[in-house]
């Protein structure tokens, strides 16, 4: 279990720490800046980024209507632009707005989820990463099954969207001031 339901012990933001707080046992992600993205990284008891390579992650979450968020993995705190988008790693997108085509469950800018869910209600994400294979299940239904090709080439602004052979951090996104998401459970199990 990565969250304790009381406070943000074991987590650290990159900027705007007031974008995250615990409300009724759940982490509330609501960005307080329209200039930057704020991310909350799992740092564990030692206070430094914890790397996960092969793992199963379960997160129970919901968003307010027309909101955007995401769970990043195989990442770190390196950013690529003034908005502070992360430079490396994948994002399981969470988005129930009408303007975004890559809805909840999509691997953002890599693989679009096959089905949509109403994530304004509590939704269970089951993410499995084993080697270069990434599986995303929502409420028990597989919506993405993607294997990163050995010779994959990404556009320059997504060049770091790759599996890191050494593993990487887990982070939650507070996307913008109009978006609010809640995470009431986050569990992880490392795989061989």
Short overview:
The chain has 192 residues and is an all-beta fold. The protein has strands at residues 11-13, 20-23, 26-29, 38-42, 55-63, 68-75, 90-95, 123-130, 133-138, 141-147, 169-174, 181-190.
Give the helices and strands, then pairings.
Elements (H helix, E strand, L loop, with lengths): L10 E3 L6 E4 L2 E4 L8 E5 L12 E9 L4 E8 L14 E6 L27 E8 L2 E6 L2 E7 L21 E6 L6 E10 L2
* Strand order in the largest sheet: 2-3-12-5-8-9-10
- The percent range for strand residues is 35-45%
Strand element count: 12
- Mass-distribution shape: globular
**pLDDT average, as an integer?**
95
Structural class: mainly beta
Task: Please tally the helical runs, counting DSSP H or I stretches of 4 or more residues.
Answer: 0
- Major β-sheet profile: 7 strands, antiparallel
Rg over alpha carbons: 15 Å
- The N- and C-terminal alpha carbons lie at a distance of 19 Å
Query: Which parts are unreliable, with pLDDT below 50 for 5 consecutive residues or more?
Result: none
């Amino acid at each position: 279990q990565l969250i304790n339901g009381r406070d943000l012990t074991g987590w650290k933001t990159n900027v705007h720490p007031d974008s995250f707080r615990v409300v009724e046992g759940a982490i509330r992600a609501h960005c307080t800046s329209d200039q930057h993205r704020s991310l909350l990284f799992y740092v564990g008891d030692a206070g430094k980024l914890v790397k996960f390579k092969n793992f199963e992650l379960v997160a129970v979450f919901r968003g307010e209507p027309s909101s955007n968020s995401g769970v990043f993995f195989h990442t770190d705190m390196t950013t690529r632009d003034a908005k502070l988008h992360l430079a490396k790693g994948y994002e399981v997108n969470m988005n129930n707005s009408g303007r975004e085509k890559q809805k909840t469950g999509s691997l953002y800018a890599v693989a679009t989820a096959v089905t949509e869910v109403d994530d304004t209600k509590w939704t269970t994400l089951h993410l499995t990463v084993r080697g270069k294979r990434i599986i995303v299940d929502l409420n028990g239904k597989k919506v993405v099954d993607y294997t990163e090709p050995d010779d994959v080439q990404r556009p320059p602004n997504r060049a770091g969207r790759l599996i890191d052979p050494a593993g990487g951090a887990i982070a939650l996104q507070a996307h913008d001031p109009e978006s609010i998401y809640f995470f009431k459970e986050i569990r992880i199990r490392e795989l061989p």
